[in-house]
Design a protein that fits this description.
Distance between the termini of chain A: 84 Å
Radius of gyration of chain A: 27 Å
Number of domains of chain A: 2
Strand order of the largest sheet of chain A: 2-9-8-4-6
Shape of chain B: elongated
Order of helices and strands of chain A: HEEEEEEEEEEEEEEEEE
CATH superfamily of the largest domain in chain A: Immunoglobulins
Largest sheet of chain B: 5 strands, parallel
CATH topology of the largest domain in chain B: Oxidized Rhodanese, domain 1
Helix content of chain B: 40-55%
Radius of gyration of chain B: 22 Å
Largest sheet of chain A: 5 strands, mixed
Oligomer: heterodimer
Shape of chain A: elongated
CATH topology of the largest domain in chain A: Immunoglobulin-like
CATH class of the largest domain in chain A: Mainly Beta
Structural class of chain B: alpha/beta
Number of helices of chain B: 6
CATH superfamily of the largest domain in chain B: Rhodanese-like domain
Strand content of chain B: 5-15%
Distance between the termini of chain B: 50 Å
Chain lengths: ~210, ~140
């Protein structure tokens, strides 16, 4: 009877499920023209008991994850398919997928890392003048990513009162857009349409904005 | 000495150093949930008064159901459509506070980062998101 507490503790400890994962983390590099990635996380029940996957949750509404069935017999394999829709995201993205398994106190965390190419950076994305300011030119800088063979073809303003002029640098990897209002007497706005030649099948168009207010 | 008195003495002897440790020890536990970099608590933001432009990073459906008064919606998916509207509401004197559903969602941090990349200064994330807003008194 002296060992009763130890016995109780052993009985209270849930049997841990034996899911073996081929990999818990996957990394992708995506081109600017791609809209999503699909990652498959394969696993095998290497234990002697059936394993039940209770739910699969993702860390972002942009990522969905699903599996074909929830119970896996000993020796049986399966996979979780995670789909990440970029939806305007660029740069390094890390998404988590939490897999809750019956009898396990903590979920297993799968990681999906995607480095999404951003062919063109602009800084800033807007320029503003206050009414009555001197109509001095302001600059937006465009920088093409090092490993991307993109060119900025043109910048157009949709308001003839606010002019935009594109000047490439000598190395062709950066540009200056000089934006000049004809005056700042009244409120005005313009959208600047920046056209590139990359990717060739669906060239990227970016937008910047000018406001007088 | 009765057992009850002995227990009370032991309790008092334990509570005093525990209180001192909790108050002054350099590794004492935080009494409230930690705030991630770039986040601010609701009470701090409410103290900023009207100098705040609220940005709702949740879905269109959630925004339509309810949102912080005068908040404007902004999402990465519809950035080119929504950012010009943001720009028309924003002025340089305002602090921008972005929120999404709760502490666990990342959308507010993503939108805040994109705003900063676009050249907007003073961008913050509401700690606890919409859930925190709903619990305000």
């Amino acid at each position: 009877m002296r060992n009763f507490p130890l016995l109780l503790l052993l009985l209270a400890t849930p049997a841990l499920a034996d899911l073996e994962w081929e990999t818990r983390e996957q990394t992708f590099h995506a081109k600017a023209s791609e809209k999503q990635v699909v990652a498959k996380y394969r696993f095998t029940n290497s234990g002697a008991q059936p394993v039940k996957i209770e739910n699969v949750k993702t860390s972002c509404g942009c990522t969905t994850a699903g599996l074909k069935k929830t119970e896996y017999s000993p020796g049986e394999s399966g996979e979780i398919e995670a789909r990440f829709d970029f939806g305007g995201r660029t740069g390094k993205q890390e998404k988590g997928i939490a897999v809750s398994i019956a009898g396990e106190p903590l979920p297993t965390i799968l990681r999906l890392v995607v480095d999404i190419e951003e062919p063109l950076k602009m800084q800033p994305q807007f320029v503003i003048w206050k009414i009555g300011d001197k109509p001095k030119a302001q600059i937006i800088r465009l920088t093409v990513a090092d490993d991307v063979p993109a060119k900025v073809l043109s910048v157009e303003s949709d308001n003839p009162m606010i002019k935009a002029e594109l000047t490439p640098s000598e190395n062709g990897k950066s540009y200056e857009v000089q934006i000049t209002p004809s005056d700042t007497v009244r409120p005005a706005s313009a959208t600047l349409i920046i056209r590139t030649d990359y990717p060739a099948d669906n060239p990227e168009v970016r937008y910047a904005y000018a406001r007088i207010r | 000495m009765s057992a009850v008195r002995q227990a009370a003495l032991i309790l008092v002897a334990a509570v005093i150093p525990a209180l001192l440790t909790g108050a002054f020890h350099h590794n004492r536990p935080a009494w409230s949930e930690p705030v991630a970099p770039g986040e601010e608590r609701l009470e701090t933001i409410l103290g900023w008064g009207s100098a705040v432009l609220w940005v709702d990073a949740r879905s269109e459906k959630e925004y339509a159901e309810d949102h912080v008064p005068n908040a404007i919606r902004l999402s990465l998916e519809d950035w080119d459509i929504l950012f010009p509207h943001f720009l028309d509401s924003w002025d340089q004197k305002k602090k921008v506070v972005v929120y999404c559903s709760s502490t666990s969602c990342q959308l507010s941090h993503e939108v805040a980062e994109r705003l900063e990349q676009s050249g907007i200064p003073s961008v913050y994330v509401l700690h606890g998101g919409w859930e925190a807003w709903k619990t305000r008194k």
